[in-house]
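Q: Convert this sequence to structure tokens.
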Amino acid sequence: MREIVLSASVASGIGIFAAAVFAFGVLCFLACFVATKWFKIKRVDFKSTEGLDGGFSPVTRICFISDLHFPMMNVNQKELIAAIAKEDCDAVAIGGDLCQSRKGKRAMLEFLGKLAASVPGIPVVIVLGNHDVRDVCGGDDAAVAEFAKELCGCGDNIHVLRDETLRLEIKGTPCHMVFAGLKEIRTERDLKPVETFNGAADLCEEGDKLIILAHNPDSMKVLKDAIEARAIETVSLCGHTHGGQFYLPFNLEFRLLRKDVLPREGYIYGEFDYCRYNRMYITCGLGQSLLPIRFRTTPEVAFVYF
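A:
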């Protein structure tokens, strides 16, 4: 009889422990979900008023967002657009992965149209990410081109670059921003990152700013030698990493679960002097992939000054 009572007591204790563990897991998940609901403003100061040869170089202001992952972007869209429109920027750059899947396409296009309308006269420069190419377009080049055309149709000030360059005025100055917008390195075909960078460098005149816009930071590994050979100051803007969406110590997320090279080396989030003539910013993005949660990383809008 005593053994039966003890067994019942042990079983009851195990049940209580299991319930407590389950409740704790649910609370953790809810906390990680809530972490996706707001965004922070990040100001990145790469300012320099001296060119390589000592010439004047005007300060350029770019709003940089990435990895919206519609329908898995949970931040308040009205507040997000208002925060971007409030800043006096020379351009808005979007670093790819606008959609997580086809299901988010319509909502993303509506958002993009509202964003473009909120910054009239300010160029919105976009590159595509691996989810855009693979999950929205099925990896088909014709479908990717059509998707890019749909994005451009959301506003007269929208430009989608796929290994292409774009030279734009910097407001109130005789100088220009020159964008080298790269194709997605893991999923696109006929990649020409070095040719695109050199083409952008050829367009630069004294005082101009050269911006490399790429979804995956690994694109910079391909460009490193070309940047150093041209000896032109550049700023690169990248996304893709989410800052480690579920941030684990010792870089475990990237060492164990991902194949990206630079993130495995520690280029996950923030400001980096990648090589002598390049300063790189990797944003943690706005949306989520796979699961609608974040742990120890917050969605953000970055304002980059250089």
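The chain has two domains: 1-34, 39-305.
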